[in-house]
User: What shape does this take?
Amino acid sequence: MKRNLSFQAGSSTGIPQKGELPYAWVIVALAFLTSAVAMAIRSTIGLLFKPWGNEFGWDRAAMSLTASFGFLAFGLAQPFVGRWADRYGPRWIYLGSLLLLGFSSVMMGFVQSLWQVYLVFGIALMMSVAGTTNVTAGVAINRWIRRRKALAVAMVMAGAAAGQLALRLIVEVMQRVGWRTTFIWSGIGVLTVVIPIMFFLFKDDPPENPEIQVIQGMEVDQPQLLSEIIRQKNFWWLAGSFWICGVTTAGLIDPHLIPYAEDLHIDTVTAATAFGVLSIFNVLGTLFVGAISDKWGHKWVLGGVYAGRALTLILLLLVREPWMLFVFAVTFGIVDFATVPPTTALSTSLFGRRSGGTIIGLVSLSHQIGSAMGSYMGGLIHDETGSYRLFFLGAAFLCIAAAVMSWIISEKPLSVRREPCRV
Assistant: This one.
């Protein structure tokens, strides 16, 4: 006789819950490391505008297109990353992505024209980063973590935030040896240190254990078709709010925060230090939201994060002195990456367990489209008006809209199609 899986709170398998396997936290730590390294290299885009402008004479809108192309490449890759991670395992996705990240970083040391920057940084490097995100980590966490999945996702995202802490060091290295040499040695480090660590330590699945075997004859849900997904309002509320997340975080902070500070005559080192402070509170905010999201309700926490972000962007408009930039860094850091744990949890819980990777990938694509649009529009508005004020004000209103979208999500469990489990 066939029977349906009975899901327990915090479980996606219906398996008796007896705590996590000790090696599961090693997997989370490795995902943290990979995310931190990739984000550190990706986040250098805001440091490159000034040296590129001095060396090549490019205007800010043209340089902002690098980030725009990158966000699009990053987003377009993520649905494929999620599907391939499900099919081939997250280990090979991580290794392939790190290989591309290392080589593209080395190649950045030899670029001579804008189209080469678009190709190497905007496409190759950013596609490599796509394989190190919460999409791949989500597949690994779903295989290894039994109960505390939201916290595990938050820990991996805290790794991405921690990667931004390296910007302070990267600024000093760039000032000493130049941006080209910095990229070359970063790439060499990825190829010779990070890849061997992941190759020898990261494992796709837990060791065989009767306690984690799926019982023959039980039924599991089938992945949803794309035509089914796009007919659901919840998908559009998630995709729409995460699009706004992209506009107001990666599309605003990464390429424009440091140039904005420089426009206010705040020196680059101080601005990069503020960016590092933002990253510290990014870690804290992400972990806090990951810990409370399961208890308080994912959609309510998510909406609250967006509302808080709107207030911080209003605060950004008031910055005039370095200390005010640090106040912004603290407050914005708390609500920056904090959207990811509840968004990931909603993506996996509302659409069936075996559709989670697809949903995360598609929702992440909307985020990157928003990031690309935000990055370019910020530069364009600055070039046209001589200021970021209109861009920041519009971003604050968008965050209010994202909060509303989050709060109207229906958390009613989805009735999914079933198929017999084959073992």
In short: The chain has one domain: 23-207+219-412. The CA atoms of residues 203 and 281 lie 30 Å apart. Residues 356-385 form the longest helix (30 residues).
